[in-house]
Structures are given as C-alpha cells and as structure tokens.
Amino acid sequence: MKKNKKIWPVWAAGVIAAAAIGTGIYGLQQIKHPQTNPGNMTQELSLQPSTQQAPKVLGMRKFPYPYQAMLAISSDADHETLRKFNLIHEFINTHDMTPFGYYGIGIPFADSFFMYNGSNTDKVIDYGNVRKPHELSWFKGTSNQPYAASILNYYIHVGWIDTLHSWGDFTMKDPFETRFSPELAAQAIQALKANGDYLTVWTDHGNQSNVDDMGDFGLTRFYRYQQGANPWSPYYHADMTIPYGVRFIWADGANDHFGMSSMIYPMRLPNGDKVWGFWRYTSNGWNRYGQPEWNWTVGDLSEQITRQKLEWLEQHHDYSIIAQHLEALNTKLPLPPNAIDALWLLAGQYDQKKLLIATTSQLLNYNVVQQYVRYHVTYGDGKAYIHIDGVVDPVDGSYMPTLADIRGLTFYTTNPNNTVIELGNLPVPDSLIVRNPSDGHAPSIGIRWFTWSTKNYAINSKSVY
Length: 465
Fold this sequence. Notes:
- The chain is of the alpha/beta class and 465 residues long.
- The protein has 8 helices and 27 strands.
- The longest helix has 15 residues, at 337-351.
- The radius of gyration is 23 Å and the shape is globular.
C-alpha cells in the first residue's frame, strides 16, 4: 500500500552540535527510531554525555504520544450547501444529538469552500429541489456581492474550514468556456485578507472550465486547461495566490495508496514558484483502460475506511489524507448509514488514542516540521536540553518555527522529568509540555498537540441555502 513515487530527500533531522559543558565531553551517536520510516531517509543525531547523571535523548518519535499514525479527511466543496455543511459538521465535529438520530462523534475535521459560483449548470444539489445556483460560496455568483461571506468567515475562524477548493466552482456545460478571470482572484484575496483569513491549503477542482487550477499544468495534454500558474495565460493568478499564503497544493490526480510515510513532495509551478504538493487517497486502483477507480464520494466512505486499513496505517506508522465529497448527496440526511458506520470506526481509533485525527492543514504543517526540523542536544546540571534550531524546508527555505509550528513534536528520553525542550534558547512553556511513560521503546517528552473543540458552531440563515 506504499506510494512508490519519489519523495524529496529528507535532510538530517538532528543538527550535530558538538558541545562541552563544564568538564564533560559529549560524543556523537546515530539513533535508530522504531517509528521513523527508513524510506524517508530521516536521520537524527544526538549528543550523548560521558556522565550517567543526565538522561539520554534517544531521538524523535514520529507522532505525538501515544498515537501510532495520523489521518485527515480532505473534503471537496462540490454541491455544498449551508444545510448539508451544518449537518455534516454537527455529526463529525460535535457531540450533540443530530438529525441522523445519533450523537456526534466529535473528531477534528475542517472542510473546503468556494469563493465563487461561476457554474451555469442547473442540476439539483440538495434536498427540496435546491439547484446549483444556490451552491455555497463567499460571493454571489461571480459578482462582488457577498452571499455566505460572513458565515464562511466565521467557520474559518472557528476551525471548520481550512482549504480553498480552487477559487470557485467554474464548471460549465461547455467545458471549453469559463467565467474565471484573475480579477476574481484579486477580489477574493482582498476579501480574505480583510477578514484575517489566511488559508494555506488549495485543492484543484472540476472539469476543464476550471482554468484557475494550478497543480498539473503540462503533465499531460489533458491538463493544459490548468492555467492558474502559467505566466503566459490570461488566467494566470499564482503571482497573487502564492504570496497570499497558499503553501500546499493538491494536483488533480489519482492515488490508490491509503497510507504513506510522508504526504508531501516539492512541486515547481510553471511560473517557477515552489510549493508543497501533497497526496490524497482518491481511488481503488485502475481499470483495464488505465483509468482510476474513484472511491471518493460519501457513499464510498465505508470502502475507504476499514478496520484493516486503519490497523495497517497504525502498524506502519504512516500518514493518510482521505479525499472525499461529504456534501455530495442531495438526500434529506446527507450521510448514508455505511458512511456513519465508517466514521464511528474512525472515531473509535481516535478515542482509543491509536490514530491521531487532524485537519488537513494541521497534518500537512506537522508533516513538514516533523520531516525537516533540526535540533541538537546538550547536557548540564543533570539535565538534557533539546534545542530546536529551525526547520530546513527545501520549499519555503529555512526558518525558525513558532510554538504553533512545533506542536506535537515528541522526543524519546530516558528521563522526561529531567529533559528540557527549547525553541532557540528559550524553554517551551511548561503548560505546553507533556511528559509520557514508555510506549514500549522509551519514555518521551513532547510539545502538546492541539485541543479540538467539540462546540457546535453551526449557523443557520434564511438567505443562504
């Protein structure tokens, strides 16, 4: 089930910083980690003291204790309405009683959305004969008039949305026509910035009318329609979108691998910009014509999420991003029974602290930092000091991470109580530190992962379907 695509070589995760504290001389030792997949070429080097008084730092744990793997659901906004959005999120994100007849499962999940509805199709997209012109979007159509702007802005701020599903739904009856223009991208960026909404994740969308797509231009003849990052195109907008803050792009392609040692790979856009591409689990193999067997609609959720796959993911200590279209059905209850069963299964692994479920942006950011963090270890006064020196990011360049960036990083140590984690030369606040018993390999110390709020943030509106 591994992805055999070439992933950017991982730089050594531990900076070697030979140090002498007092009269103690510290040697170097390469650490082998039971949860670091050798396929990603990660090496962590630690300084070991000659004295036995200080604990020994034994390297990084791949995921926060006690979790064995990390997973996110990445759902595309196709046919999204406010009614379906609220029903889906009340069941997944909260513990409230829901119209499905069950209490919500209360797991982390952030959705995607459209800034514009530039489609001229008129199909039914929701219960009650709600049609495509009422699809959920920030602006009304392709105008400058708000439609669900205030609601979507609120959902971004409370964590229920973290992904741009391109700039909008521009799917046309004639796939060689489009209503997209770079001026729409500029207007969208201005509106998002004005509301303090900075989204780092982008997923390509739709048929050839969606010329604002960026990820696969030039890959094959078919993908020539993806003009968003082509600087010679009248639909070019990447010169605005990437500086705005888009950092991760899912290129509209199939992937039948449920778990991978890393979800990210460097992507160079046609204009020369570098971003992180990322994989999503979208399909169950290919048919005899070489076409993907897509299994990413909500009715396929029980095929995507099985106990066997989740246990495999945990045993291999891998990442997974499940591509979905959770709001795709136009039934009164948009989650069919088999989808509810699959989500219960997922929640069970999360509640047992075997599988860490995250939002898409959380998983991707953690993946980068976990893979490219540099640190060194010094010892003194009977303590071990883990100094996080920076992230050597081959796409965005080296930088000093913030406390939010390093949430979840965990280090094996023989004595967590006498181990200190420092960001630069400042100790991480004790309120963010967790000290853990052995997981069968060694005890550990880490920076506390994010706490998910199960509060019901759903907003209803008489003017938004």
